[in-house]
Amino acid sequence: MIQTMKAGVLHRAGKISCELIPVPEIGSKEVLVAIKVVGICGSDVSRFLRGTSPYDFKILGHECAGEVVKVGSKVTAVKPGERVAIMPVIPCRHCVFCRAGEYSLCDNFIRLGTRVDGCFAEYVKVGPENLLKLPPTVDYESTSLLEPSSVALHTVKRAGITPGDVVVVLGCGPIGLLIAQWAKILGARRVFAVDIAQVKLRIARKTGIDDCINAKEEDPVEVVMRETQGRGADLVFEAAGTETTLEQSI
Question: What radius of gyration, in Å, describes the C-alpha atoms of the chain?
């Protein structure tokens, strides 16, 4: 087994260097995964620019997938050679929320690339309960979008979308684009995608969103009201995080 690996090590704000560091050692209940692909999240960018953390970690990255290369002596759920997606949030499994199955609300969770070293590296260690086996029809690149896609799906499900709804998505970054696609998949009759960047609207069209509004050229509220004969939207998702889009959503 190889002893060292390449990793992007965060030293300070704006400074990441590719270095050789030891491959993580796994315990009896842990799994070593060779990272095949990792996405760059907006939170990775902000931490890179900030360069500081109250936690003792130096490797970012949490949107990832790879191949199991080694398992601990007590691990039976996965075996070497299997392709897996990695769920980045690691709950304590002991607090009141974990006992209720609400792992995302865990009082003591840790997260890859946030409170422990993440996946901007050739290898990472995790527990088998944080791995999802990949079917042969799903490639690694697509799998790197699993975590942000699940965020978008959770958002749409919590909103209570029903077939036939008219949906507006304000902001066509990755999460906004995924929300728009999930809205269509879950039965929205019409989805309006709004942004001020034409390149993002072109991507929205490529993903199947027909009604794309450039807010620099048109008032999205007026367009939606006109196109729906004054009815407006059933659901509005604010995915840009600006004062303007918040006001437009209301």
Answer: 21
> Tokens for 45?
């960018």
Q: How far apart are CA 73 and CA 188, in angstroms?
A: 48
Residue 19, pLDDT score = 95
Question: Under a CB-based contact definition with an 8 Å cutoff, are residues 83 and 65 in contact?
Answer: yes
Distance CA 199, CA 87 (A): 30
Write down all domains in the chain, each with its CATH number in brackets: 4-144 (3.90.180.10), 149-249 (3.40.50.720)
Instruction: Give the C-alpha separation, 131 to 66, whole Å.
Output: 10
- The 10s digit of each residue's pLDDT in 25-81 is 999 999 999 999 999 998 899 888 887 665 556 899 999 999 999 999 999 999 999
Task: Write down the pTM of the prediction.
Answer: 0.87
For residue 193, the cross-strand partners are 169, 212
Instruction: Assign 110 to helix, strand or coil.
Output: strand
Give me 141's structure tokens. Answer: 């690149």
What's 232's DSSP letter? -
pLDDT at 56: 58
At residue 43, the pLDDT reads 87
DSSP E strand stretches across the chain? 4-12, 15-22, 31-39, 63-71, 83-86, 89-90, 110-111, 123-126, 131-133, 166-170, 190-195, 211-214, 235-238
- In the chain the first and final C-alpha atoms are separated, in Å, by 57
| pLDDT attached to residue 206 | 96
